[in-house]
Each structure stands twice: as C-alpha cells, then as structure tokens.
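Technical annex B. To support the medicinal chemistry partners, we prepared a structural model of the target in complex with iron/sulfur cluster, based solely on the information shown next.
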Amino acid sequence: MAHAHPDTSKAPAADAPTHTRHGACNLCEAICGLTFQVQGSVDGTGPQARIVSVKGNEADPLSRGHICPKAVALKDLHEDPDRLRQPVKRVVEQGPHGSITRWQTITWDEAFDLVVEGLARTREQHGPNAVAVYQGNPNVHNWGNVTHGHLFFSQLKTRSRFSATSADQLPHHVVAHWLYGHQLAIPIPDIDRTQFMLVLGGNPLASNGSLMTVPDVRARFKALKSRGGKLVVVDPRRTETAAIADEHLAIDPGTDAAWLLSLVHTLFAEELTQPGALAPLLDHVQAVRDAVAPFSPEATAALTGIDAATTRRIARELAAASSQGGAVAYGRMGVSTQAHGVVSQWAIQVINLLTGNIDREGGALLTSPALNLIQMKLMGPGHLGAWRSRVRGAPEFSGELPVSVLAEEMLTPGRGQIKALLTAAGNPVLSTPNGRQLDEALAKLDFMVAIDFYVNETTRHADVILPPTCFVEHDHYDLVFLHLAVRNVARYSEPIVERAPGTLHDWEIYAELAQRYARRVWALERGGVASRLAGLLTRGLMKRLPPHRLLAIGLNRAGASAQGLTLAKLRAHPEGIDLGPLKPSLVASLTARKKRIDLMPAGIRSELPQLVAAFTGPVTPLASPSGRPTLKLIGRRDVRSNNSWMHNSERLVSGKPRCTLWMHPDDALRHAVADGQTVTVASRTGRIAVPVHVSADIRPGVVSLPHGWGHDREGVQMAVAQAHPGASINDLTDDRLTDRISANAAFSAVPVWIEAA
Ligand SMILES: Nc1nc2c(c(=O)[nH]1)N[C@H]1C(S)=C(S)[C@@H](COP(=O)(O)OP(=O)(O)OC[C@H]3O[C@@H](n4cnc5c(=O)[nH]c(N)nc54)[C@H](O)[C@@H]3O)O[C@H]1N2
Ligand SMILES: Nc1nc2c(c(=O)[nH]1)N[C@H]1C(S)=C(S)[C@@H](COP(=O)(O)OP(=O)(O)OC[C@H]3O[C@@H](n4cnc5c(=O)[nH]c(N)nc54)[C@H](O)[C@@H]3O)O[C@H]1N2
Ligand code: SF4
Ligand SMILES: [Mo]
C-alpha cells in the first residue's frame, strides 16, 4: 500500500490562522451538525491540522445548533496518544518473570498478509463457519463500513456472523419485517407534531434518542407540552426524561409486554380502536382481539405494578389524542432488551396501528431520505430462523446469529466450532451478556483480528489490530440515521482535518482485505473461473470507488439528482439540506413489497397463549440463592458516556464516579448499606464491586448500573479509562437470558443479589 503524503508532522504554530469546517457528530444517533475551528492545514499542504473548538451548527436543519459534551471529545479522540495509527501485532516474549505481551508496530502490508493468512488457514482447517465476525455499533455510524464492509464479510461465507444488533434493537427489525415487510421499515415518531407521546424504556434526554434520530430532544418535548400535548414515560427509574414528563409510570422491569397487552385489551374492550386510513389493509384484527382478551389491566396490574385504572386512563388518553392531532407509542432499549422484547415491540406497533397513528402526521411515519435503502433495495427485507445456532438452536435474523450464543459457539467442541474471530468497531467483552465468559473464550481462539483504534478489553486478545482513521479524518454521509430521523434531511461532510500520514480509512481496509482474501482463497471458492474473476474485478473496482463516489452514483440512481440533489449541491451546503417533515409513504411502499399488514404474525400467534399464566397469574418472586433477597438489575445511560469507548477522554470521565449502583432507600435499609458504600453484587454469571447510590428515583426492588465500564482488565492500553475503570454490568448479565422469540440479549430484570457490603 503506497500512500504519498506531504510532510505534515509539524504542529501548526499557535498563532496560525484558523479555518471554519462544518461536519457532523457520529457518536450517537442524533448526528448533530457541528462547526469546527481548525488551525493548520486541512488539505495536506502544510502542518497537520489541530482542532481548536467544536460548536453546534445553528444552520443545521435537523440539530439546529444542539450538541452535547461528547461532541468536544471528538477532538480528544483525534489527539489521543493511546489511539493506534499503525497496525500492530501481539508478541509474547518470555521474560525472567514469565511471559510479557507487547504490541509491535508493523507495516500495513505485513498486517494484511497476517490477517488474510490467519482467516484463510482457519477456514481451510475447520470450514467457513469456524471464522466468526462481530460488528460493533460504530459500523452503522461510519458510512465507509456500510459501503465497503460487506465486500469482505460476504467472502468469508460464514454463518457465524454477529453484531451489536442482538444486544440492542433486534426486536424492532423482526417486527418491522413481519408487519411492514422490511427490517428497516421502522416508523419514526413524529415528535414535532404529535399530541401525545408514550415513551417506554427509552431515555432520550440522556441517549439523545434511538431509532428516532432526534437532536435537541429536550426542546422538542418542551414544544409538545407548550402546544397542549402530553408526554408519558414508562420506566422503572425516574430518568431525566421522566423528570420532565407529564406523567411517569415506574413499571416493574421486564413486564412491559404484559402492560402493553393490557393497553391493546382496553382499546378493544372500550371500543377505542380507530385504525383510520390503514384499516382496509389490516388482517387478523379479530385474532388480536381474541388473543388479548385474557390480559385485562386488572389481570396484569400485580405483575407490572401499574394499577388498572391508570392503564385504562392511558389507553383512553392515547385514543383521544389520536383524533386530535395524533399520538404515538415508542419503545426503545429498555423494552427491546428483555425476555419479551419482540412481543413488546409488536404490541407497540399494534397500538399505533389500531389507533390510526401509523403513516400519519403526528403519529409515526416512515422517512423519505434522499438515499432510501429500502426503496433502492440496498438492504434485503429480512428473514428470521432460516437456520439456527449449532449449540443452542437460536434463530438467525437476516444472516446473523444472536450475540448471546457467541461464547458458547467458541467453547463447545465439534464441527463448526468458532476458532477465529474478526471484530470490527466492537467491544463485546464489555457490551454483551456474560462478557467475562466471552473474555475467557477469546483467549482460547486460534486467531483473532480487530479493526479498531484502541487496545481495549476485547481487542487486547487480537493477534493483529488494524486501526482505521478517526471520525474527523474522513468524510461522512449518514446512510443509516438519516433513515431514522424525525425530519428528512440530506447532509454530506468533508473531512475536518487531513488524516495522519500512512493511515487508512475503514473502507480502504475492507477493500484491501477483500481483494487479498479473494486471491488467497481462490482455490477454495466454488463457481467457475469466470465468476471468480468477476469477483476479483469487482473488488478491484470497489477499491477505486470511495464512499463519496458511491454517494454520487446513488443520488443519481435514486432520482435525487433529478431534483437537484447532487453531491456538488451537498458539498455547497455542509450544514445540510432540509427535505421537510415526515410524509405518509407507507401505503405506497407496502404495495410494492407486501400488500397487507398482518397484525398477527405466526410468531406472535403461537407466543401469546403461552404468556397468559405468566402475565395474569400469581406473581412469583425471583429465584434467590441461599435466601438472599433478589433485586432486578437494569441499565442506564449517561450523557457524558458513549457505550464502552469514549472513556479515554478526560473531560468525559472527570468528576464523581458514574459507574454506581442505584438503589431505593428501602432496599438500602434492608441490606444495611449506606450511600457511597461499595458492595459486591452477584448474579448467576459473576460478581463485581461497585459503590451504591441511594435514591428514591428508582423503583424498590430494582437496581441500575450503566454499561461500558470495567477498564481494569490486564493489557488494556487506555490510560485515562484505566484510571476511571468502573466495573462491567455485563459481568452480571446472563447469556442465557434472552428474548423468547429473537434471542436478543435480555439485559432488563437480571436477578442479582448483594453478597457483601
Ligand atoms: N448491559 C448492557 N449492555 C449493553 C447495552 C446496555 O444498555 N446494557 N447497550 C447495548 C447497545 S445498545 C450497544 S449498541 C452495544 C455496543 O456494543 P459494541 O458495539 O460492542 O461496543 P462499543 O462500546 O460501541 O465499542 C465500539 C468499538 O468501536 C471502536 N470504534 C469507534 N469508532 C470506530 C470506527 O470508526 N471504526 C472502527 N473500526 N472502530 C471504531 C471503538 O474503539 C470501540 O472499541 O452495547 C450493548 N450492551
Ligand atoms: N450518552 C449516551 N448516548 C447514547 C449511548 C450511550 O451509551 N451514551 N448509546 C447509544 C446507543 S448504542 C443506543 S442503542 C441508544 C439507546 O437509547 P435509549 O433506548 O434511550 O437508552 P437508555 O438511555 O439506556 O434508556 C433505556 C431506559 O430503559 C429503562 N429500562 C430498563 N429496563 C426497563 C424495562 O424493563 N421496562 C421499561 N419500560 N424500561 C426499562 C432504563 O431505566 C432506561 O432509562 O443510546 C445511544 N445514545
Ligand atoms: S447528542 Fe452529542 S454525541 Fe450525539 S450526535 Fe449530538 S453531539 Fe454527538
Ligand atoms: Mo445501541
């Protein structure tokens, strides 16, 4: 790989002139527009540039100037001395006091050779499924991974594919696929026009929204209230969002499905259904009515902790608002990652459909992005259970197995056992259930490679790490989150600064890997010489087609350029181009895909009868070993944290430790623990020590911890994070607790107990 670079090694002088650059933040789904002040060269002609300041871009039609403290940390990431800029390989040496691991910098050429050889050899020896892939969350936040990643992954021909999706939003995709015929057909709440918003298991004031790209959500909720609308939050904790809501219902964790079925029950029982324009398309309405009959609000109240009168009132308020401007139920992480994630997300869609709020202003709508991945068929409609995992028999979804089975597929001998792993922009040791077990399994692999710029809890197990550039060093067009935004916007950002000499973008890494791997496994590939040659040629071509060229082609294909939306125009408007509010479009896209909406998919039809006893019978306390009182563990996000990987920025981790166990005063009394005291929390899978934060803002019997902490593992090379390690909630969560239908990780309501204070 020869990359010519001018000498940019000198830092710009302190009084060097500053330039203004517009970009976006890719850290979370809000994709806020940013304005950077940059000193030095931004085009490679002078000393390497330095970011002087980061501010919100007032001219951005979506984010309107909003940012959060993490945006400024993009500068810290750029400057972080711990961030890898060159490939490294792990070298274990025998010293006088035992073995020592060190990371040796190697050339890109050597690194690619090692990776291709390591993966190809495993495939030759153990078959394609012995090579696994785990793709973490930033893959969808970095468009080069979206445009070029599949080139390489598809070549591996492995069924052992995993991603953060199954520790997150998998139920949304299953339900979208079942109801609307496409895994990405997720209706987005029309927050700017609705009159009633019911939020379950989401805390957008901390997370800045999810499956709802909604920068400046606080102002949008305020506007909802000032136009006479209502915000209701259902969450076991009185979150930042619950605190500004009109009403907060502190539900018992893991019971949302029961409560939502009671809402559906009430809509039928009180004749509140009004499906509106979609009515002629709905199949099996009567079957839903019959199936929810046992789940009256009275029958589920003991389980959920929400009294029947409140449930009935919420159903009535939602129905009333539906005929006065629109209402929408929205559920996120907290309801996806539980034992009944799919049933919960299905019930949410059913409520929105039965009240006529899907595909209408003020309800929830599909978006109309300039590049529509559904319409352009750039993503398949999805499939569930086309095959099952080897050990547990968990279903695949759209070619991926749930990450809860990853460790057991590595640890269980037999044909198809995973022997090699590629992680790309992921940290599954901290982010997947029973992370400690995975940590141990990774240490036993024959070969591991990570595409990542940190030596963290996961990548420390790699044989080779391929580090891509960081966000401000490459251009960006948000292929995924512009699809999920509360307003239609198109925005392309140039790189903010010149990349460091000799570095590669993610897409370049994939393009190179794809080409070299194709040559290496030539003999293993099926198909004739012609098809194999075509594959090689495509890969050679894709190496010459950077993401922005594909964007230009895509805009043309989508017909967007016909309406004047070209790459040149996007370049002239780095703040973004407003394409207007969400518009009804579901019916048109439905007819093209799947003509009707089956309200009662087979997976739900067989599931509901099985839930009657559990949801409406006597409430059984959680199993508790040796008689210890058992608490239900849930998660938590903090605005200054970003999953597991922004903890190496001093400004984001300074101040009081945030990895604390929230506990209700009654439980603190029962366990004789005081605020600030460190306790050992245990579960079936492990134990961790964390300080307790006593607060009446959490439901009794429930404790909450944030995820993404636990940086004290040996070999991590992130100095700031190591100085603020915290402990990993996923040493307590359980790979055996999963959603009954999709096998998505069930992080909510994990039984834990306090071992020692
Ligand atoms: N208990 C519990 N567990 C959870 C959650 C929870 O709420 N509770 N949340 C879950 C959710 S929603 C998610 S999405 C997952 C996230 O889980 P993961 O995706 O596994 O983990 P992240 O912490 O996002 O790690 C991202 C990694 O990508 C690297 N990275 C960042 N940018 C780039 C880039 O541009 N290119 C490359 N190649 N690498 C990059 C970072 O250095 C880091 O190592 O965690 C899940 N785990
Ligand atoms: N600051 C910050 N922002 C982020 C991230 C981050 O790590 N930090 N991560 C990003 C990612 S990858 C994602 S997916 C999104 C997630 O965005 P959100 O879905 O908004 O995530 P959380 O803030 O974790 O909110 C989940 C809420 O569910 C509640 N909850 C837990 N269990 C239950 C339950 O059983 N029932 C109900 N009703 N509620 C429950 C929790 O108390 C919590 O308030 O955030 C994104 N934005
Ligand atoms: S809310 Fe913060 S982290 Fe999310 S995109 Fe905006 S600035 Fe970035
Ligand atoms: Mo996520």
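Notes passed to the chemistry partners:
The domain at 190-366+597-608 is CATH 3.40.228.10 (Dimethylsulfoxide Reductase; domain 2).
Residues 25, 27-28, 30-32, 67-68, 70-71, 208, 215 surround iron/sulfur cluster (ligand 3) (CB under 6 Å).
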